[in-house]
Write a structure and sequence with these properties.
657 residues, alpha/beta, Rossmann fold, six-stranded mixed beta sheet, four-stranded antiparallel beta sheet, 23 helices, 12% strand, elongated
């Protein structure tokens, strides 16, 4: 980062300021050394001889030599700061892809199955994306139940980040996950973009979506937009915290806890429909590596986004470096420059020289190029040095990140890919290491290709993929047949495969024997069951024959009864006809008798009244009443009262029944 001291003068590498401090320390040491030397000599000589003996120390050549030594250090330090002044105008053309990031801000993104929650992690992931985006225009869409263009396509990443910081679940009141609406809004935002330079990164948990997302994806495909989806959340789901009540979770209208789950299926369908890819959010940068580096940067055509004129300040470090070299030669030719030699001898000891040489080897690029040491290293070289230092300090995660950034600076360098893979392998991330070794093994350098295949075999072995490990080791031996480590590992893995196969065969034999024993036991059980079933069947048959015989006997008895009944009916009909005749005769006799007895009817009525008027005793009447029902008792009591009243009133004035 350049720093402007005042108008027209800039410092290219302000981080090298400690070298100025070093030059000041050297100046103080030289002054202190000169005074100490004079005071020591004055103590040893007489005052009369002081002018003669100290004339050499106070000579102009001596002073010039000391100043030259100091100026060498000072000018070299200034050159390391890379001072710049003067400028020229330069035409700058920017090539890139238009990328819109659509982020879900519904309440389901507050779920904490990804710490601290899904929305915060999604915002951090977008910031990581900004770190690797170079030359691409970026835009931002926020969506929930509806969509809103938060930031249009821009090259101002600072403004984009400002809009990103404002995102929250309260931004859009209408809740839901309107993925289709977000896609339609991105189509409108891409109207000014080139046909083949458009990419939409959709960040959501995919829950609560509408059913029109596939139709929207098809329309985006027709507009030349590729959609890359990134899922945040877990398949198991997690409760959603209630923003209005801390410590509580959201519940539905029935009082049930709302669980938000990642819906990967629709995200995969959307990406597949437009030719993009789906990636689940990771703690590392694998998801960004897959979506942006492997897909957007390599498979989407870049377009001329902007052309402008910029000031390019001229680097003037060469002037100070050249002056330092001149003073080195000047100091060496000065005859009287001996006063500072003791200091130089004390400072430049063999140990000091060894330390300086080691430092130069550390800060220089692969071939210890001194030009890089003087502040001219490129961004790729600086990242390489940073990664190398972290790797040597066994900080493998930091080393992999530095090498990965160096690879972004120069995607064509297979050495950077190999360095990333080696760092990941050392950190134990074998799966990601395999992906980098697969790419670095395509190098034209035989030694690098052999090393990549060798480490690829080691990574496959660590993952338990023994067959792939053997193929990788065989590839090593094709190019370098004398690779001892590859030979040893190849034999070791083959032995492991043989042991594994023997173990599998042994297990298969044991399994077969167990199956055989189980089959025998099953057959024996089936035989026993068959025998029991036969016995039970025979018992059933015998019982059935008895039941059938009983049924036959019952049928015979029933037929006999029916026959007897029919005969009785016939007899009855005959008897009935005879009785009817007899009744008619009796009826005629009764009628005749009635006519004869009409005259004596009154006497017979009196006799009947006498009989009906016979009184019962109280005990007899009570017993009669006890045998009757309750309702009949009441009727009988009324009847008795009626009769008593009728008898007492002489057939007049009594109540009628």
């Amino acid at each position: 980062m350049e720093m402007e001291l005042f108008s027209g003068l800039r410092i290219g590498v302000p981080s090298n300021y400690p070298w100025i401090i070093v030059s000041g320390v050297v100046l103080l040491l030289l002054i202190f050394q000169g005074k100490k030397q004079k005071s020591t000599i004055r103590k040893m000589i007489h005052d009369k001889n002081e002018g003669f003996l100290l004339s050499d120390l106070s000579s102009n050549s001596k002073k010039l030599a000391t100043c030259s030594f100091f100026l060498i250090i000072l000018l070299s330090s200034i050159s390391l700061l890379q001072p710049k002044w003067g400028f020229h105008w330069e035409e700058v053309k920017r090539h890139g892809v238009d990328v819109i990031v659509a982020i879900d801000v519904s309440k389901s993104m507050l779920a904490e199955d990804i710490k601290p929650n899904r929305l915060i992690r999604a915002k951090r992931k977008i910031l990581d994306l900004l770190d690797i985006v170079e030359g691409d225009r970026v835009g931002l869409i926020a969506f929930a139940g509806t969509s809103f263009l938060q930031c249009p396509l821009t090259l101002d990443y600072g403004a984009f980040q400002m809009f990103l910081d404002l995102l929250d679940t309260d931004l859009i009141p209408q809740q839901g996950t309107a993925i289709d609406d977000a896609i339609h809004l991105s189509i409108e935002a891409f109207k000014s973009s080139a046909k083949k330079s458009k990419a939409l990164i959709l960040i959501t948990d995919g829950e609560g979506h509408s059913g029109a997302y596939l139709e929207a994806a098809k329309k985006a495909k027709e507009e030349g937009i590729k959609i890359y989806t990134m899922g945040f959340g877990s398949a198991e789901g997690h409760p959603i915290p209630d923003p209005a009540h801390k410590g509580k979770n959201l519940k539905d209208s029935n009082g049930n806890l709302v669980i938000s789950k990642l819906n990967e299926q629709i995200l995969q369908e959307i990406a597949l429909e437009t030719g993009g890819v789906y990636a689940q959010a990771q703690n590392n940068d694998d998801d960004l590596q897959l979506i942006y580096v492997n897909e957007i940067q390599t498979k989407i055509q870049k377009n001329n986004l902007k052309s402008s004129r910029q000031k390019r300040f001229e680097n003037r470090f060469q002037i100070f470096l050249l002056l330092a070299i001149v003073f080195i030669f000047l100091e060496s030719y000065l005859k009287q420059a001996k006063s500072h030699l003791p200091l130089i001898k004390r400072v430049l000891t063999p140990k000091t020289l060894a330390l300086v040489f080691f430092s130069l080897s550390q800060v220089s690029y692969a071939n210890s190029d001194l030009v890089n040491y003087f502040g001219m290293a490129s961004a790729e070289e600086k990242l390489y040095l940073q990664g190398k230092s972290s790797f040597q300090d066994k900080k493998f995660k930091e080393a992999s990140e530095a090498f990965a950034k160096a690879e972004l600076e120069n995607p064509l360098s297979t050495k950077n890919l190999y360095n990333v893979g080696s760092s990941l392998y050392k950190s134990g991330d074998y799966q990601r290491a395999i992906s980098y070794f697969e790419r670095s093994k395509e190098s034209e350098d035989d030694s690098l290709r052999a090393s990549s295949n060798y480490n690829l075999g080691n990574s496959h072995y660590r993952m338990g993929q023994l067959d792939k490990a053997i193929k990788a080791y065989e590839e090593v031996l094709k190019t370098t047949p004398d690779h001892e480590k590859a030979k040893k590992n190849l034999e070791f893995v083959r032995k492991k495969i043989k042991e594994k196969m023997d173990k599998q065969k042994k297990n298969q034999k044991q399994q077969k024997q167990q199956n055989k024993d189980q089959k025998q036991n099953k057959d024996q059980n089936q035989k026993g069951e068959k025998q029991e079933s036969k016995e039970s069947q025979s018992q059933k048959d015998s019982q059935g024959s008895k039941d059938q015989q009983n049924k036959q006997n019952k049928n015979k008895d029933q037929q006999k009864k029916e026959k007897d009944k029919s005969e009785e009916q016939k007899k009855g009909s005959k008897e009935k006809s005879a009785s009817e005749k007899k009744k008619e005769e009796e009826k005629k006799a009764e009628e005749a008798k009635k006519k004869k007895d009409q005259d004596g009817k009154k006497g017979s009525d009196k006799k009947g009244q006498m009989k009906r008027g016979k009184k019962l005793s109280k005990e007899e009447a009570q017993r009669f009443l006890n045998r009757m029902r309750r309702e009949n008792k009441d009727q009988m009591k009324q009847f008795i009262k009626y009769k008593l009243n009728k008898q007492g009133n002489g057939n007049s004035g009594g109540k009628e029944w």
